[in-house]
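Session log. Operator J.P. requested a structure for one protein chain; no other inputs attached. Running the standard single-chain path with token output.
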Amino acid sequence: MNFFLSTDLVIGVNEALNLKEHLAQISAQKPGIIYDANVASSHYFQDVLKSLTSGYTNAVLYCNEFSGEPTYAHLENVAEFFRGNMPDVIVAIGGGSTLDLGKGVALLMTNNVPALSLKGFPSGVNDPLPLVTVPSLLGSGAEVSYNAVFIDEAEGRKLGINSRKNFPKKAVIDPQLSMTAPIESVIASAMDSLVHCVDSFGSIKHTALSRIFSVEGFQRTFYALQQNQLDRAESRLDLAIGSVCGTAALMNSGDGPTNGFAYYLGVKHRVPHGMAGAIFLKEVMRYNHLHGYEKYAILNPMHSTPSPKEATEELLEQMDDLYKQLQIPNLAPYGYGKGNAAEFAHNASEALKGSFSGNPVEFTEESALKVVFQLT
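Structure written below.
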């Protein structure tokens, strides 16, 4: 059994105000700071940035105004910006897309090659600049992951730059930075955590250790969402821990159909990745349950029955209630009905056979169609 997580992690309310000290610990002299335009107007973020730049007056600042997940072309442009005033460390502050952009920039600063040449799983690359991630949303897990999602516009696919060299040197998680985010973004990110936890839990490549993280991440995130008190720092801390746990589990096991569906829908209709996954999560779980998979009972800490089957059914009923509470949509708003469900299932199956193969029960194009039918 193998398990890895290579990022130093600090979590705490107001911890982002100590970024200057965290950078000093890794001997930073000239940070390049990439921050999300969505947090730029936040008074708390402005305090964070002021505190950081007061200690680094030579810092190079870049505001990421790119809408949606970054493309390789956008990464190339941002890398050129920093090459003109080379930093010795990258600090990425924002949502998952901005953190991924930071990973790509850190790698391109030491590898003067076209961004597209690094797509997929590059080998033989130089070590990147040290990267410090500071998430403003809690759920994608990008702050501790080596994966970085980028879209190849020519192919219309998410391919990313995935190398263990991408691991951030340090992640500083401060729930205060997420407090001004739109509630729909907070919910989408938290649902992304649930997808990571459930997919990794059921993955045929899971280990006993990865499952510990899957279960803890699911229960913390699910409970925080159920309580419907996301304006409290305590709930945001649960989301933060759930995010780290879900991503650690996913990296050490593998994904499943839900993540695969999310990638396909997200690229085709520019649906935020967390919400795209949320649309499919419950029905993939229900499909697995109906085909004999009863281990989801372990995710339900409050079950009132010793029967795994009944405990799983109880969890799915709670999921139904949560989806109503959070107003998670089906596929209808994106133009899908019974008439074109088969086309969606076929295209998703062709594009994402790897994700489907990780499911704990056999999952084919016919399986995909049954899930999609439930959502139309």
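Operator note: The chain has two domains: 8-178, 183-374.
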